[in-house]
Design a protein that fits this description.
alpha+beta; four-stranded parallel β-sheet; 27 helices; disordered C terminus
Length: 831
């Protein structure tokens, strides 16, 4: 694999043509031994890991950007141990400095009084949160997590090009990159003695737990996310699962008596620590940003009262601007009495006369940015503008100089990126992470390396389609790095099984329902496909007439199709069955329900096991292929896809049955599944039996096939299909896991274990409804339901099923009202 970078640009891997840098030599030798073909095969496994693990990055404004697979390069960025020690020391100093600046600006503001920092950079900053003035967090730590974007200049020195103080993202992706990298190149990874990342995560989590108010020994911590549409939601769910803490949205929390509580099925659980991944000004619609629909009213007051710790502290996002960079060397001398170890990229704030004149004189050599991030204002490269646009920019800077900041154009270094034609050079930016460990800032021994898409592009952005790399920091002593472990504290006190957030219970309930809808739809279409063959010896249990009737009664086909010609019915049926399988835009199709299944599962990602997620990924892959244009091939493909789907769904059900703890989450998942199965079955029986205008025997086999009860029927009754026996098996048989009786008995069992409202006596509304539904089944024998009236119709069955279906909907609504909608006043748990 020949790699030839641009000799005019500093390259991370190559010192001179054909000669790798000292710390890259071991990796270069190992990759050369591996060979291009073997590396390609290894990386196919790596890409499959990314897909099966559900590693995604959402792209705002891109209709195809939601849940976009994470882009990673198999070739890591390698950093020498001694060089890294210098980087780590500089990042520790910088985090300490920025924390001191935040403490001063939200405290006595001596930096403003001494004119060490212009007041315009504070009071004009939209991310300066005035309501947070005077709030002193525990140990004076405003900045619990910090990230810096680094770039190497042409002389080989590292520069800071951006500070991330709001809610730094990337550590979850960095750890996932490491997991994929270590599994793709295990022998190479071990030979290079790469420092481990896991201890950094443990230390930062434990340090946060030690900051709990009043020194609480078993604090409750949650991770606050804006929701599944956020670009880095995968990371939020990943960190919540990795640290074993609940992932919550603003609607899951409430403030009572200046304390933050999590809404759970058992009532309100007090929260001590909030690890936020939401911009601070969105956290409180009362005091911070009135148009926020994501925050928690009175959240700022709870923080002000000292009853909850927020990491990072509210207001820390004010330093995510380039304007402060030009003042950092002086501030470092002022606050820490030290020289700044790592310089920032040269920065000029145009609000001062001297810097303004320099910017105007050297406009073509600089990058112009808004002083503070505002909607519609973007970075401008004057050198790329024509003379008219450049003159217009100059006038805008002169008119409002305080609104602009200029920076030197940094020539980013390059690193090898894998392509099918071999390694190529791409510009990189390294994001490094620091976290407060209880005494100082610990730096993660690695980072998130991002690479540009094109060699000619200096822009490195995941939003613009860039890629990422694992970052290998070598251990010079041959060890894998020193393990730093603070005192281990179990996150969260021992809880009752009912301490499940209501939103998660809602999502689990609908995960069960959508899973059952996909399975029911797959079994129905699979059973009806043989009706298209037109051959009596096909082994089909359904005729074209029977399939047309069933789908018409289920409102899939128009009523007038009953009187259409045989050819028209077959063509219409073929089109319908094809769309039910392949068209995700068709309401109630398999694809439509699968889309919603994926949506709900995505919001539960931290709750689902890795194996469960892999199974769901396989299910999505089954229906992701476009339908063939040839009708015959389309039907064959549909049949194959449906067979696979049923098997995969059975595997998913098995995983949930064998691997899920029998807690409240499992009960709501089962409730959704059982209610939906009962609804699907009652609608199927009503369409296939009570509304059948002809001898129902041809449809009895279809009903048994759809409900996976054919073998049970044959081994039990030893006779031809008869309505009475089919109803006995599918309605009243409590031992048949596909019967109505079994579903309602299971629903009633789960409802009896749900948290009760302490203010009420007797069974809850949903429990009374379920008891009534079970009593209705037991009071109607199969003989009664199979009896025909004078006109030959199954009137008793139709009446029973209509009432039963309505009862099921009432049960679902009652569950939602009691446990999801918070219509009842929840009790406070002061413990």
């Amino acid at each position: 694999m020949r790699y030839v970078p641009d000799p005019e640009i500093w390259d991370e891997a190559i010192a001179s043509p054909g000669v790798p840098r000292r710390h890259w030599r071991q990796l270069a030798v190992a990759l050369r031994r591996l060979g291009a073909d073997q590396l390609s095969r290894r990386w196919q496994v790596g890409q499959q890991l990314i897909r099966s693990n559900g590693i995604t990055y959402n792209v705002y404004g891109d209709p195809h950007g939601m849940e976009r697979p994470w882009v990673m390069d198999p070739l890591p960025l390698v950093i020498d141990d001694k060089e890294w020690d210098g980087i780590a020391a500089a990042i520790t100093q910088r985090a300490t400095l920025l924390n001191s600046i935040l403490a001063d600006l939200y405290g006595e503001r001596q930096l403003i009084h001494r004119r060490a920092l212009p007041p315009e950079l504070l009071f004009a900053n939209p991310n300066f949160l005035r309501p947070c003035t005077g709030i002193v967090p525990p140990q004076g730590i405003h900045l619990h997590n910090y990230a810096a974007d680094l770039a190497r200049s042409g002389d080989g020195k590292w520069w800071v090009i951006a500070d991330r103080t709001q809610a730094p993202s990337g550590i979850g992706y960095a750890l996932e990159n490491r997991m994929v990298s270590a599994r793709t190149l295990p022998s190479v990874f071990n030979q290079c003695h790469v420092r481990q990342l896991a201890t950094f995560f443990e230390a930062s989590r434990d340090a946060l737990l030690e900051l709990a108010p009043n020194g609480k020994s078993n604090p409750r911590m949650v991770l606050l996310t804006p929701g599944p549409n956020n670009e880095t939601f995968f990371e939020h769910s990943f960190l919540a699962r990795h640290w074993g803490i609940p992932l919550v949205e603003g609607a899951d929390l409430t403030v009572r008596d200046n304390r933050v509580f999590l809404k759970t099925l058992a009532g309100l659980e007090p929260i001590d620590i909030v690890l936020r991944r939401m911009d601070d000004n969105f956290c409180d619609p009362l005091e911070l940003r009135g148009d926020s629909l994501l925050g928690i009213p009175s959240f700022t007051q709870a923080v002000r009262s000292g009853n909850v710790v927020v990491a990072n502290a509210l207001g820390s996002g004010m330093l995510e601007t380039s304007t402060h960079m030009g003042f950092l060397p002086g501030l470092c001398k002022d606050l820490l009495g030290e020289d700044l170890r790592m310089p920032s990229v040269a920065t000029w704030w145009c609000g001062q006369a001297g810097p303004l004149q320099y910017v105007l004189d050297h406009l073509d050599e600089l990058i112009i940015k808004p002083a503070f991030h505002r909607f519609g204002q973007n970075t401008v490269f004057p050198s790329s503008l024509n003379s008219e646009k450049r003159a217009e920019l100059r006038e805008r800077i002169k008119a409002h100089p305080e609104q602009f900041v200029a920076q030197e154009q940094v020539s980013l270094s390059t690193a090898p990126v894998y392509t099918e034609s071999g390694p190529v050079a791409r510009h990189i930016v390294l994001r490094v992470f620091a976290a407060w460990d209880g005494k100082t800032y610990a730096v993660m021994p690695g980072g998130l390396t991002r690479a540009s898409t094109e060699a000619s592009s200096p822009v490195v952005s995941m939003q613009m389609g860039g890629g990422s790399k694992d970052t290998w920091v070598l251990s010079g002593d041959g060890e894998f790095g020193v393990a730093h472990r603070a005192g281990i504290i179990t996150p969260g006190a021992p809880r009752s099984a009912a301490a499940l957030p209501s939103r998660l219970a809602d999502n689990l309930f609908w995960l069960g329902r959508y899973t059952e809808r996909v399975e029911s739809g797959s079994r129905l279409v699979r059973a009806l496909l043989p009706a298209l063959s037109g051959e009596e010896d096909y082994g089909s249990t359904v005729s074209l007439e029977g399939a047309t009737h069933l789908l018409t009664e289920l409102s899939y086909l128009p009523e007038e199709l009953r009187s259409a010609s045989l050819q028209q019915r077959r063509r219409q049926l073929e089109s319908l069955l094809s769309s039910l399988v392949f068209d995700p835009a068709r309401t109630s199709s398999i694809g439509w329900n699968l889309k919603h299944l994926r949506r709900v599962a995505w919001q539960l990602k931290e709750r689902l096991s890795q194996d469960s997620w892999h199974v769901l990924q396989q299910l999505e892959d089954v229906f992701s292929q476009p339908a063939p244009s040839n009708p015959e091939a389309r039907m064959i493909t549909a049949a194959t896809a449906l067979d696979r789907a049923v098997v995969i769904l059975s595997a998913f059900a098995g995983l949930l049955a064998e691997s899920t703890t029998r807690g409240m989450g499992w009960r709501f998942l089962e409730l959704g599944k059982r209610l939906e199965r009962a609804l699907q079955l009652s609608e199927l029986l009503r369409a296939g039996l009570s509304r059948a205008p002809f001898d129902d025997e041809p449809l009895l086999g279809t009903l048994l096939q759809v409900t996976d009860s054919s073998i049970t029927y044959r081994t039990r009754y030893f006779t031809t299909f008869q309505t009475e026996y089919v109803l006995d098996l599918l309605v009243g048989d409590a031992a048949n896991p596909r019967s109505l009786s079994f579903q309602i008995a299971a629903v009633l069992e789960h409802l009896s274990h749900l948290p009760r409202d302490p203010k009420t006596t007797g069974p809850a509304a949903h429990q009374r409804l379920a008891e009534a539904a079970l009593a209705a089944i037991r009071s109607n024998t199969s003989e009664d339901l199979a009896a025909r009236d004078f006109e030959g119709n199954l009137a008793s069955l139709d009446t029973f099923l209509a009432s039963f279906t309505g009862n099921l909907h009432d049960i679902s609504d009652a569950i939602a009202a009691r446990h999801f909608s918070h219509l009842h006043t929840a009790r406070l748990n002061p413990s």
